[in-house]
TrEMBL record:
Keywords: 4Fe-4S, Electron transport, Iron, Iron-sulfur, Metal-binding, Transport. The keyword Electron transport applies. This is 4Fe-4S binding protein. It comes from the Archaea. The keyword 4Fe-4S applies. Residues 7-37, 46-77, 79-108 form the 4Fe-4S ferredoxin-type domain. SUPFAM superfamilies: 4Fe-4S ferredoxins (SSF54862). Pfam families: Fer4_4, Fer4_7. The lineage of its organism: Archaea, Methanobacteriati, Thermoplasmatota, Thermoplasmata, Candidatus Sysuiplasmatales. Gene3D superfamilies: 3.30.70.20.
């Protein structure tokens, strides 16, 4: 089956006020996860603007090519790159491969695991950061996939 679309977030820095409601909503959307940190991060940019760090759902996910446990795969049904956090061995190989710095390592409560945006797969209502943003600076987008690495698509 050929993948022709991917699901992702779209961020408009001109609309962002830096309130971080998206970060709070992200953590709240994953109450049972071992990771207790947001998968989207808002930081101050230049001249009062803000930047968002999150998984942009690349056409080809470079971190998936170095994970020794093959835990980063493309889910055709959800149109999203997913990382199996509960099986992560914390080797850190994926972190420097992400050109967007969107994979984080969380040492919460003595457990180290890599994690990234999962588009709130399994959370009713979809990505909570989108619903929580009071200025609509974050939106859901469906984009065409030009090419997905052979074997990475599941």
């Amino acid at each position: 089956m050929t993948v022709t679309q991917k699901y992702g977030l779209v961020f408009d820095p001109l609309k962002c006020t830096g309130c971080k409601e998206c970060e709070k909503a992200c953590v709240d959307a994953h109450p049972d996860d071992i990771v207790k940190e947001p998968r989207i991060r808002i930081r101050a940019g230049n001249a009062g603007s803000f930047k968002a760090t999150y998984c942009v759902q690349c056409n080809e996910c470079a971190p998936s090519t170095v994970c020794p446990s093959d835990l980063i795969t493309f889910n055709k049904e959800k149109l999203t790159w997913l990382l199996e956090e509960e099986r992560c061995i914390a080797c850190n190989a994926c972190i420097p491969k992400c050109p967007f710095n969107a994979i984080f390592l969380d040492p919460t409560m003595g457990v180290e695991t890599a994690y990234k945006c999962d588009m709130c797969i399994g959370v009713q209502g979809g990505p909570r950061c989108v619903a929580a943003c009071p200025t609509s600076a974050i939106a859901i987008g469906i984009a065409p996939v030009e090419k997905v690495r052979e074997g990475a698509v599941t």
